[in-house]
Design brief:
Rossmann fold; alpha/beta; methyltransferase; two-stranded antiparallel ribbon; 47% helix; membrane; 8-stranded mixed sheet
Length: 305
């Protein structure tokens, strides 16, 4: 029994701002994002912040950024968002439905958290399972949750946190992996998540296709990412804060202004809600949808295989 039966369209209509497939295709055909031309998969150069670099360079540059910020990553998230990132992640995991799926099927589903770094999403899922099904959370031959990330320094922070929380590697495992080339078989996971990592991918569309590949039929994909604020006044305030305050925090707290300049620019250049929605559809996800949090500062995009 797959978990998809737990998420009827009626429920999704209450939780998400849905767009019909016809509207998505119309949006694509009007040229805002197409399957050729502007498709990042067909481009030889990409943006790294405000710079134009070759595709093969970006992955290394992004890795350098996260190696630099790994030890202060969690505290910087708190400072930059005023603690809001915790609420966004709590909401993301609460409505993801892993524990609900486990209760309905009688078994713990497998989850892959891509670009999971220090384990923020994975730890929340584990805690939810412990709260709902304490007897079901035990060691087994295949971990329930795999945290995949291309950066070894970020993964090491996550491993230390798991050890401090007495979470066995048989339950949650941290592995090196790139979103556009995941080292897993087709149809492996019931859930695939990515939180504040998609905008750092060299090729977003290829990453979406790859994450869909490793999902089981009926499996659920969820992405939590910065997006575009719809209100003009709030957007002006938000962009001013991002441009002026966040790099200064990076300089003072992490002694690294350049990395946070990149992170701010990566947010600015990330596809907006509808553009990313159309990419989900083009990548083959069924019933793609999104919902905004905090006036669109972040958005959660969903789809099924």
């Amino acid at each position: 029994m797959t978990c998809r039966v737990l998420f009827s369209r009626k429920v999704l209509a209450l939780e998400t701002r849905k767009k019909s497939r016809e509207n998505i295709l119309d949006y694509i055909h009007r040229g805002r994002w197409t399957s050729s031309g502007s498709n990042p998969s067909l481009q030889e150069t990409v943006h790294f912040g405000s710079r134009i670099v070759k595709k093969e360079e970006k992955a290394e540059l992004v890795s350098e950024v996260f190696t630099s910020v790994a030890s202060r990553y969690d505290i910087m998230n708190d400072l930059m968002s005023g603690g809001m990132h915790r609420l966004w992640k709590d909401d993301f995991v609460r409505k993801l439905g892993v524990a609900t799926c486990a209760r309905a099927t009688g078994s713990i589903p497998r989850l892959l958290d891509v670009a999971g770094g220090t384990g923020d999403i994975a730890f929340r899922v584990i805690q939810q399972l412990i709260n709902w099904l304490p007897s079901a959370v035990s060691a087994q031959s295949n971990p329930y949750i795999i945290v995949s990330d291309p950066n070894a320094a970020m993964l090491e922070v996550g491993r230390k946190k798991a050890k401090e929380r007495h979470i066995l590697p048989e339950i949650m495992k941290f592995e090196i992996g790139h979103a556009h080339e995941l080292p897993y078989d087709d149809n492996t996971f019931d859930f695939v998540t990515i939180s504040f990592g998609l905008r750092n991918c060299t090729d977003i569309f290829a990453a979406l296709q790859e994450m869909r590949r490793v999902l089981k039929p009926g499996g659920r994909f969820e992405c939590l990412e910065f997006s575009k604020v719809s209100d003009p006044l709030l957007n002006t305030i938000y962009r001013t804060y991002s441009k002026r305050v966040i790099p200064e925090l990076g300089a003072r707290v992490a002694n690294d202004r350049d990395s946070y300049d990149y992170l701010v620019e990566s947010i600015r250049r990330h596809p907006d809600q509808l553009q990313l929605l159309s990419q989900l559809s083009a990548a083959g996800f069924k019933s793609p949808s999104y919902r905004n949090l905090t006036f669109g500062v972040v958005a959660i995009h969903s789809g099924f295989k």
